[in-house]
Amino acid sequence: MTQNILRTLGANGLRGFFLLVLAACTLVFGVMFTLPAHAQAQPKIVADTTSLLSTYKLAAGDVITIRVFGEDDLSREKVRLTDAGTIPYPVLGEVKALGLTIGAIETSITAGLSGRYLVNPRVSVTIEEYRPFYINGMVEKPGGYPFQPGLTVLKASSLAGGFKERASFSKISIIRENDPKAGPKKADINTAVNPGDTIFIEESFF
User: Fold this and answer.
1) Fold for domain 132-203?
2) For the chain, domain boundaries
3) Residue 113 near residue 121, CB atoms below 8 Å
4) What is the CATH number of domain 50-129?
5) Sheet order of strands, 63-68 included
6) C-beta separation of 96 from 104 below 8 A
7) How far apart are CA 169 and CA 140, in angstroms?
8) b/e for 54-72, b at 16 or more Cβ within 10 A?
9) Degrees to nearest 5, angle at CA 60 with 56 and 61
10) What DSSP assignment string belongs to 36-83?
11) Could you give the residue ranges of the DSSP H alpha helices within the chain?
12) β-pairing, 198-203 with 132-137?
């Protein structure tokens, strides 16, 4: 192959060959240095997930873990919020968590421990299990299931064993947890489901 290239280029074959090699190397290095630019798109996905968790408001049924670095006695694994939206916590008693975000509950516990109990407490709170949503009607296994970020009616029905044969896709309604007095609202299989929501799948008669 090299001889063919040299023959084609004639007297300047050797110089031309090195120019081809140089051009090939430039192309390879150009691709290599282009890759990091594409990789920069990945942190955006992480940021979006972090944003979702930072706005999630705790309520009864959520399960959280509280860690105080260097203080195992003050750490608690998988604590479920009570019906009143509180969590039992050593030295602080019942800590209100209802309606608070993860960041807010961290701040609340940190403030409670600071000064009197610890000099500079470092508190971390994570969600272990989201409170359930509920799905009733024409699904195989009606009931309550733990919420998952990105949940839709279609995904919710899958958790409940799938739609029954006579399920009506045009007769789906949902009651929002944060708006219980508004009554059922029309939904479809792509409607987003929030924690505490109740979904109704009606029967089709045709």
Assistant:
1) Outer membrane lipoprotein wza fold like (3.10.560)
2) 2-39, 50-129, 132-203
3) yes
4) 3.30.1950.10
5) 76-80, 63-68, 123-129
6) no
7) 15
8) eebebbebbbbebbbeeee
9) 90
10) HHHHTTHHHHHHHHHHHHHHPPP-TT-EEEEEETT-GGG-EEEEEP-T
11) 2-9, 13-39, 42-55, 102-113, 153-159
12) parallel
Length in residues, the chain: 206
Query: Rounded to 5 degrees, what are φ and ψ at 34?
Result: -85, -25
Amino acid of residue 47 = A
What is the per-residue burial (b if ≥16 Cβ within 10 Å, else e) of 99-117? ebbbeebbebbbebbeeee
| pTM of the predicted model as reported, rounded to 2 decimal places | 0.63
Give the integer Cα–Cα distance in Å for 133 and 156: 9
Percent of the chain surpassing pLDDT 70? 73
Closest CA to 89 of 102, 69, 105: 105
Whether 95 and 104 have beta carbons less than 8 Å apart is answered as no
What separation in angstroms does the CA of 87 have from each of 90, 112, 184? 10, 14, 31
Burial degree of 174 (CB within 10 A; 0-12, 13-18, 19+)? buried
pLDDT by residue (tens digit) across 16-74?
545 444 555 444 444 333 333 333 333 332 333 445 556 788 998 899 999 999 998 99
- One-letter amino acid identity for 131? R
